[in-house]
Amino acid sequence: MADYERSLPGSERDFSRRKTVLQFLHIDAYLLIPLLALVAGGLVVLYSASNEHVDTVMRQVRNFVIGFIVMLAAAQIGIETYRRWAVVFYAMGLMLLVAVPFFGVGAKGAQRWLDLSVIRFQPSEIMKLAMPLMIAWWFSRYTIPPRPLPLIGSLLLVALPAGLIVIQPDLGTSLLVAASGLFVIFMAGISWLYIGGAVALFVASAWPAWLFLLKDYQKQRILTLLDPESDKLGAGWNIIQSKTAIGSGGWNGKGWLEGTQSHLDFLPESQTDFIIAVLAEEFGLQGVLALLGVYLLLVLRGFWIGLHAQSAFGRLLAGAITLTFFVYIFVNMGMVAGILPVVGVPLPLISFGGTSVVTLMLGFGVLMAISTERRIIVQ
Amino acid sequence: MLGERDSLRDTGRESSINTGRVLLAGLLVTALMVGLVARYYSLQITNYEQFLTESDRNRVRLEPIPPTRGLIMDRKGRLLATNKPSHRLSIVIERADDIDRLLDRLGELIVIELEDLARFESRRHRRRPYEPVPLKLQLTDTEQAIIAVNRHDLPGVTIEAQLTRYYPHGDLLSHVVGYVGRINEREAARIDAANYSGTLHIGKVGLERRYEAILHGQVGYQNVEANAHGRVLRVLDKQPPKDGAILRLHLDLDLQRAAYDALGEQRGAVVAMDPRTGGVLALVSNPGFDSNLFVNGISSRDYAALRDSPDTPLLNRAVQGQYPPGSTVKPMLGLAGLKLGLVTPESTVPDPGWYRIPGDSRRYRDWILRIRGTGHAPEVDLKMAIAESCDVYYYDLARRMGIDRLAQSLKPYGFGEKTGIDITSEKAGILPNREWKRGYLGQPWYPGETLSAGIGQGYMLATPVQLAQATMVLANRGTSRVPSLVRRIDNQPVGFLLRKPLTASEKDWSAVIAGMMDVVHSRRGTARAIGKGASYTIAGKTGTSQVIGIAQDAVYDEDAIAERHRNHGLFVAFAPVDDPEIVVAVLAENGGGSSAAYPVARKVMDAWFGGIADG
């Protein structure tokens, strides 16, 4: 309790100065402003990446509108409600994942989609939020740091959906979903001994995994990462072209709508996973730093919310959501820049795509709910 | 249960653990962010130049602009080789919905050869979908109209115009101008790939090949911006090509046609030269062929017809055909005899119609023996020996001269070596002597062979252009020039090449030339038939070259010998005698005798003096 009391006076002054609609709507301005900046910047980049296709930009605007509504709605829900419904949410996600192999729709050699006639979506996306909710709920029932038995339980809860997603097959998403659960375990303060052991185990299992687990196209991606020149026109093409796009941007960039790599179709997936290359090419390192700055604001605010959350559940959840958000950024920007293998991860709030926008905004809604919880209690 | 556990929690400890972990996470995030920034810094700042170059290389493509091939004109500026727009039917694959159906439909409208289809199929897979793939070259006007009318029903079909080499006088000049054709693999290995990067055709034979470098020109370039699919979006900058130069020939189209018409059906060759310059005024090899057939790839059927024809139309008889020069060498040997002091204009040789080497029983017959049963006259002098082409006189002269001196005396006329005429595939002929025979046949020289050489038979071979060159030396009284076809390159005159002159006294020249004049203008000259009604003086010499050896004392019956075994008729001449303007050499292949040749020369000269020369 002592922590909160100490932080109380400063916080109260904040509230008193800004007694606004935002507070009434449970909206955190420190998240909202960077988010709006990202959305605006993202649309500008998307306009260029889509070859000035207004229709694409309008569809993304629609995605953002839906995303903000979802965020707003999520922010209104009390944190205790999330805690109570975590299990149901998780169970639903799990069931849908089980359903995918039987009712799923294929695309590019993998079955990842469920077609519910009204809406087509990937159940794995649900898991991106359901997973940290579930693990946070799990640990909220035990002491922290967790004892071995609850820890094993949590690992099983992580492994189950991750395993289901791997067999779709979608290794990238599976790792990200697993990461969102593992971040909760990390935030819960497990011993360094366990972390070290896990890392050792991971390294040790790399070779058998390469031999027996990874599919050819996954191996190809890793090999291509190590030496893109080995397959210039095939798998290496994307990476060579994206690195060229980024590098040729220099410090100043070629200027908006002037990126040759994207406008002349050399850059693949320029509207979605590789959109950072368009930004880097047209706005240069300045643009990249500005983007990273905005991301950093969001991440720092996420951690701040985690630090000041009232309940253990809120603290764990906020930390995990924030870390997961950062991992998306890191994995996407790392893969486009050729330091990570190519996995299907969009750049948060910049890449074109509804599912990703909605899932991320839902996460920010939950973060706002957590931050609001504290304030209500304080008041 | 749950509530109980909650109540046991140590919230203070939990909170401090959380703070620690959040700080740790913050550190982790910072470290990874720094890593990302380092990576982007490395790409965008450290390696900026390299990636900028890469991206420019991606988008900017250097495209060649082929130069327009130089024209070839005759002395009066009439086009002998030109470039004409031709239309070809191409298909843009990405715009056609169903290729097979489209090809069927086209086949109903116009004639599409199987060869066209095969070529289309093989090209189709090498082109990008937006690039037109040629299906049929050189559409006729009718075909163009048919396609235009049915355009709406033929999605993907385009008609492209481009410049194609065209020879307005295909048959007439096929052996002079030659032709261009598609660059083949051997040529591709030889040429400067950069300069030919936009060029499809290359000179294969004739002037087209000899002056390839000049006619082709220098390629130009343009930098174009293209997208990842290779489609050109805009031109960034351009360096125009330097077009090929125009070749202006000495050759006169009218004289060429006159020579061609004069030969008619007769296989053979005509070479006309201006002795004052060495410029070739006409160069005909009959039969010719249509040069245009080769430009865009001759069909195998057409090619087989040309290759397998017994008339060998692909052989350029004027420079590649090698024939015994026969009696055409007699004036030259006569001059040699005068110079060596073996004969004088007044000295005579008895002529019974045959000759026998002292100590040898074999009789060497004179051609006249078969006709008159006797010799030309009891005693024959040089002038008569030339005018009537007396073999006995020359048997005697040759025997006394010996083969080595004989060969040596013919060398200044250019026999046995290429004239150096500016055309491809020239042959050198043979000027035999002891050494040559030992080298080539590994045999000693026999005295009888010297007699044969004395009348231009035996091993000696010469091309019509060599005969023209030799005759030019006589016409010029010693001055020898390299025959040349090209007079100007882009209005820059081409210099005349002089050969080492032949020196002899005026008296000797006059004696020989008087004999040659008698060939045409005396009562018993062998070509007296063409002396009648000539408004100018002609000096000439007839010749007959044997195709097969006639057995000793066998009766020579022309009719019994297959046409292909008939003798070749030869005639060389220049006119006017006092101030020669034109030299003509005529070969009538299997013409039977010189009577097949000299009328041709007269017609050519008549044409020349009848107005062409002044035009």
Task: Provide structural commentary.
The complex is a heterodimer of chains A (379) and B (615). Chain A has helices at residues 2-17, 21-24, 29-49, 54-76, 79-103, 123-140, 148-166, 171-187, 192-213, 216-226, 235-249, 260-263, 275-307, 312-336, 354-378; strands at residues 105-107, 110-115, 120-121. Chain A is mainly alpha-helical and 379 residues long. Chain A has one domain (2-378). In chain A, helix 4 runs parallel beside helix 15 (354-378), helix 6 runs parallel beside helix 8 and helix 14 (312-336) packs antiparallel against helix 15 (354-378). By secondary structure, chain B is of the alpha+beta class. Helices cover 38% and strands 20% of the residues of chain B. Chain B is built from 23 helices and 23 strands. In chain B, strands 2, 3, 4, 5, 10, 18 and 19 form a seven-stranded mixed sheet that branches. In chain B, helix 17 (391-401) packs across helix 20. At the A-B interface, helix 8, helix 11, helix 13 and helix 14 of A face helix 1, helix 2 and helix 3 of B. Chain B: The active site is at residue 327. Chain B: Pathway: Cell wall biogenesis; peptidoglycan biosynthesis.
